[in-house]
Amino acid sequence: MDLIIGVEATGTNFKCQVNSVKLTPDADTNTEKTLCPEGVYSEVDDPEWTLEVGYLAGRDKEDATKALSEFMRVNHGKTMPFTFRPYTGEPEGGFSGVVRCMATEFGGEQGSFSKVSAKLPVVGQPTPLATTTEP
């Protein structure tokens, strides 16, 4: 799994800290019924998306400045591009988009890992990464 926040070519891949990533849609529906048996009318709004990230807080094993918690704190309120690939290193599959960074919790209990979850609002709609189809 790859989770790159920032421009893909230069952004940080947080895959070694992340243990779950989900893009979650939330769409409102409106349904009206009339007295006629066929009289059911429905509309569905465009979804608003959230990038849900579960990760271990702390330092990046190779570069302490690349800890996801610190990245979120420093960039709180800023929008950043993201790339999410369910299968590491594959150029196909997954999504890209823009998220709004939000500071996350710090700390935890003695003797346990500091597990953190963040729900980052996606700006607009995520874009599927290109996939190739063989003839």
Topology order in helix (H) and strand (E) letters: EEEEEEHEEEE
SS field, number of helical segments: 1
Terminal CA distance reads: 27 Å
- As a percent range, the share of helical residues equals under 10%
Q: Which stretches are low in confidence, meaning pLDDT under 50 for 5 or more residues running?
A: none
Relative strand content: 35-45%
Largest sheet: 5 strands, antiparallel
- Count the strands? 10
Query: What spatial form do the alpha-carbon principal axes imply?
Result: elongated
Mean pLDDT: 87
- Find the structural class using helix and strand composition: mainly beta
What's the alpha carbon Rg, rounded to whole Å? 19 Å
What order do the strands of the largest sheet run in, or round the barrel if closed?
A: 2-1-7-8-10
Total domains: 1
Protein name: Phage tail protein
Organism: Acidipropionibacterium acidipropionici
